[in-house]
Amino acid sequence: MATVALIVHEIREDAEQAALTLAGWLTERGHKLALLEANAKDLAIDAAVCEPEELAKGASVVVSLGGDGSMLRAAQLAAPHGVPVLGVNFGQLGYLTAVEPDGMIEAVSQTLAGNVDVEMRMRVAVTVIRASGEEIDAGHALNEALVERDESGRTVRLGVSIDHEYFMSYSADGIIVASPTGSTAYSLSARGPIVAPLHEALVVTAVSPHQLFDRSLVLNPTSTVEIEVLPDRNASLSLDGRTIVRLLPGDRVCCTRSNVPAGFVSLHGEEFLNVLKTKFGLASSNGELNPNED
Pairing relation of β-strands 61-66 and 85-89? Predict the structure, then answer.
């Protein structure tokens, strides 16, 4: 008998209906369920209601029913407990999810039987060092840490050091430090490189830089990237799209490889390449175009 934790997109009725179906299937087989309070209010499921930090404790798997945003949340809660996440896609394309809704039951069955691979995805650990010397543990990002301009809309000046050696200063809308998994998120829209998710690296990309050098850096996973807010503009730090803290001139953001990776259930091997082909309408085989390409 296993415990399965569910994270369900709160405003998608199809995800909630799938959660009810999955809960019934699991209960019939003697498995236990765990839910967050926000989901428990909307779902008539016999389940343990948990605080976020306790949801994955003792679970065999966390099943995310939603899109990539739900997967980011699930990974954040599951990784500290060493519990893998299985993503069921109720979003659009879904870079992070492993299975479509019609394959949900089979995927969960195979996961509980141990017939799947678990991919360990690198995360980024982030610390804020105030100008006063105070250190703040900002947390861990699966996709990216972003130091960006504040609400004024003006570009921000940021000094970047790599392995404690000054590299250069940027005048830009922001700087992204992404994991390989995050290379297909905001970093990609900023013209950063695509890195296979099982690689380990820190990918540094400037957002709309106002200077000649605008190339990304793909650094060793053992590197330390420090971003200092230079006078006389404020900035902010966000992790995976969540604003964490406001930054003042002299504050620094330190990014390193996290020692707590996120485990993702993998059912079919290289889903990553298939998602890329679908998103960009790449040739399917023998030079033929995908059906969605004109």
Answer: parallel
Q: What are 249-262's pLDDT values in tens digits? A: 999 999 999 999 99
Q: Which CATH class is domain 3-121+261-280?
A: alpha beta
What residues contact 179, with CB distance under 8 A and at least 6 apart? 121, 122, 123, 124, 141, 142, 143, 144, 201, 202, 203
d(CA 87, CA 183) in angstroms, rounded, equals: 19
CA separation (Å) from 126 to 35, 37, 97, 158, 194? 28, 28, 25, 16, 22
* Domain residue ranges in the chain: 3-121+261-280, 124-257
Cis peptide before 232 (omega within 30 of 0): yes
Active site residue 163: no
Residue 198 tokens, joined: 């099982």
Torsion angles phi and psi, residue 76, rounded to 5: -60, -40
**Of 130, 277, 122, nearest in space to 202 by CA:** 122
Pick the catalytic residue from 14, 68, 232, 240.
Answer: 68
Question: Cα–Cα distance between 196 and 176 in angstroms, integer?
Answer: 17
- In tens, the pLDDT along 12-70 reads 999 999 999 999 999 999 999 999 999 998 898 999 999 999 999 999 999 999 999 99
280: amino acid identity, one letter = F
User: Other CB atoms closer than 10 Å to residue 220's CB: what's the count?
Assistant: 11
Which residue type occupies 270?
E
Tokens 């604003």 belong to residue = 243
* CATH class of the domain comprising 124-257: mainly beta
Q: Is the pTM of the predicted complex or chain greater than 0.90?
A: yes
CA distances to 121, 193, 216, 235, 245 from 179, in Å: 9, 11, 13, 21, 20
